[in-house]
Amino acid sequence: MNKRAFIKSYGCQMNVYDATRMADQLRAEGYAVVDEADGADLVILNTCHIREKAAEKVYSELGRWKGARGASGAPTLVGVAGCVAQAEGEEIIRRQPRVDFVVGPQSYHRLPGLIREAEAGAKPVDTDFPAEDKFDHLARPTRRAITARGVTAFLTVQEGCDKFCAFCVVPYTRGAEVSRPVAQILDEAKALVDAGVREITLLGQNVNAYHGEDKGRAASLADLVDRLATIDGLARIRFTTSHPNDMGEDLIAAHRDQEKLMPYLHLPVQAGADRTLKAMNRKHTAAAYVELIERIRAARPDIALSGDFIVGFPGESADDFEATMEIVRTVGYASAYSFKYSPRPGTPAAERTDQVAEAEKSERLQRLQGLIAEQQRGFNRACVGRTLPVLLEKAGKREGQLVGRSPYLQPVHIPADAGVIGDIVTVAITAQEGNSLFGVRADAPETGAPPARSEAA
Ligand code: 5AD
Ligand code: SF4
């Protein structure tokens, strides 16, 4: 019987992508990759270091695996991957001796060798930024594995960050910006689409700074999107996450001209006061961000925006926080993530003596999240009565339903007999509940679904 491997991922979408690549590696080594932790012969925790809570999760989770054994009765092999692995290395094994190996995000192509060393009783730690490109060494996913993951896929095109925002660990855990070559990305995208993928989300810690090699020249993210758009069968392209200062004119124009690029943009500003932005080393003002949003909206009027915010950055006054509330009101987000500032070891902001009190952070977060939730509800409500193209992704939670996504990433539920997974169907939105939309097909349904409704209905 095959040995069983279980991978649990925390944090961002890039970790989700990395987990799929690790799973492909393990399958090539003869493992069955399973969704159930119990009885696993190998467990990999793919960790996140972005905030203290995320980083601490790994240690409480590791406690669970102390006495674990695989189906064969041998002790479960426990590995720590991801950004905590990169940031803490050896320290993880010192703190939790149950851990058998540690592997960073740039060296997981060496997983098979590390597993063999760990099985032999060594406790290898590999947090190198190797000279070789891990993507040249990773196992390719099988067609079956791709199909099993569904009709949407992530594809990492850029890693690392050179921006050094004062709060952020990413430049340390993921290293300097590196862009994958265009040909390598096109190859991977074609394999995904061949196996049934209809939507690809291009990932990078600073994805719009992408500058990959293309036949001896540097291609921008807009160039890459155009190249990907030529793949027949690929219907939708998204990218995340972006820095305002890398939002080039060609990328703004792509939102106007490139039909396959979805009108939804995650463009974090983090805070609304210029003095906070300066202290965060964001290298732009609030006004510059608002002006940029205006230009993007001029190019693509129906674009929906999403963002990230940090409250309680060191030195943030009550007035500074009000400026964050104000920029949220000015921009109007379809959705946004917001966090209390969490001091991270090794980052400049963690050294500051003017940290904001926890209670103050909590209060600010609550107010900000209230405002964001209100905007999100408003955005979702405004979709009722519209017709939207929906990519059907999977069976809904309730029987007789299929669920897909609108261009704005909202889950949309329709009667199951009204379409097939992988299709993009036109849906008249009839109702909204929380973040979900409900509707019926408005384009020639092949079934007995209710008649089409017009956009004006
Ligand atoms: N504390 C709180 N939030 C943070 N983020 C990044 N670093 C920190 C930190 N130290 C947030 C930012 C970023 C998102 C991924 O996480 O808003 O955009
Ligand atoms: Fe977490 Fe950042 Fe690492 Fe993603 S890149 S896992 S968000 S620390």
UniProtKB/TrEMBL annotation:
<feature type="binding site">
    <location>
        <position position="83"/>
    </location>
    <ligand>
        <name>[4Fe-4S] cluster 1</name>
    </ligand>
</feature>
<comment type="subunit">
    <text>Monomer.</text>
</comment>
<feature type="domain" description="MTTase N-terminal">
    <location>
        <begin position="3"/>
        <end position="120"/>
    </location>
</feature>
<dbReference type="GO" id="GO:0046872">
    <property type="term" value="F:metal ion binding"/>
</dbReference>
<dbReference type="Pfam" id="PF04055">
    <property type="entry name" value="Radical_SAM"/>
</dbReference>
<dbReference type="InterPro" id="IPR006638">
    <property type="entry name" value="Elp3/MiaA/NifB-like_rSAM"/>
</dbReference>
<feature type="domain" description="TRAM">
    <location>
        <begin position="381"/>
        <end position="443"/>
    </location>
</feature>
<feature type="binding site">
    <location>
        <position position="168"/>
    </location>
    <ligand>
        <name>[4Fe-4S] cluster 2</name>
    </ligand>
</feature>
<dbReference type="InterPro" id="IPR038135">
    <property type="entry name" value="Methylthiotransferase_N_sf"/>
</dbReference>
<keyword id="KW-0408">Iron</keyword>
<keyword id="KW-0411">Iron-sulfur</keyword>
<keyword id="KW-0819">tRNA processing</keyword>
<feature type="binding site">
    <location>
        <position position="161"/>
    </location>
    <ligand>
        <name>[4Fe-4S] cluster 2</name>
    </ligand>
</feature>
<dbReference type="InterPro" id="IPR058240">
    <property type="entry name" value="rSAM_sf"/>
</dbReference>
<keyword id="KW-0808">Transferase</keyword>
<dbReference type="InterPro" id="IPR002792">
    <property type="entry name" value="TRAM_dom"/>
</dbReference>
<feature type="binding site">
    <location>
        <position position="48"/>
    </location>
    <ligand>
        <name>[4Fe-4S] cluster 1</name>
    </ligand>
</feature>
<dbReference type="GO" id="GO:0051539">
    <property type="term" value="F:4 iron, 4 sulfur cluster binding"/>
</dbReference>
<dbReference type="GO" id="GO:0035597">
    <property type="term" value="F:tRNA-2-methylthio-N(6)-dimethylallyladenosine(37) synthase activity"/>
</dbReference>
<comment type="function">
    <text>Catalyzes the methylthiolation of N6-(dimethylallyl)adenosine (i(6)A), leading to the formation of 2-methylthio-N6-(dimethylallyl)adenosine (ms(2)i(6)A) at position 37 in tRNAs that read codons beginning with uridine.</text>
</comment>
<dbReference type="InterPro" id="IPR013848">
    <property type="entry name" value="Methylthiotransferase_N"/>
</dbReference>
<dbReference type="InterPro" id="IPR005839">
    <property type="entry name" value="Methylthiotransferase"/>
</dbReference>
<feature type="domain" description="Radical SAM core">
    <location>
        <begin position="147"/>
        <end position="380"/>
    </location>
</feature>
<dbReference type="GO" id="GO:0005829">
    <property type="term" value="C:cytosol"/>
</dbReference>
<dbReference type="Pfam" id="PF00919">
    <property type="entry name" value="UPF0004"/>
</dbReference>
<dbReference type="InterPro" id="IPR006463">
    <property type="entry name" value="MiaB_methiolase"/>
</dbReference>
<keyword id="KW-0479">Metal-binding</keyword>
<keyword id="KW-0963">Cytoplasm</keyword>
<dbReference type="InterPro" id="IPR007197">
    <property type="entry name" value="rSAM"/>
</dbReference>
<dbReference type="Pfam" id="PF01938">
    <property type="entry name" value="TRAM"/>
</dbReference>
<keyword id="KW-0949">S-adenosyl-L-methionine</keyword>
<protein>
    <recommendedName>
        <fullName>tRNA-2-methylthio-N(6)-dimethylallyladenosine synthase</fullName>
        <ecNumber>2.8.4.3</ecNumber>
    </recommendedName>
</protein>
<feature type="binding site">
    <location>
        <position position="165"/>
    </location>
    <ligand>
        <name>[4Fe-4S] cluster 2</name>
    </ligand>
</feature>
<dbReference type="InterPro" id="IPR020612">
    <property type="entry name" value="Methylthiotransferase_CS"/>
</dbReference>
<dbReference type="InterPro" id="IPR023404">
    <property type="entry name" value="rSAM_horseshoe"/>
</dbReference>
<feature type="binding site">
    <location>
        <position position="12"/>
    </location>
    <ligand>
        <name>[4Fe-4S] cluster 1</name>
    </ligand>
</feature>
<keyword id="KW-0004">4Fe-4S</keyword>
<comment type="similarity">
    <text>Belongs to the methylthiotransferase family. MiaB subfamily.</text>
</comment>
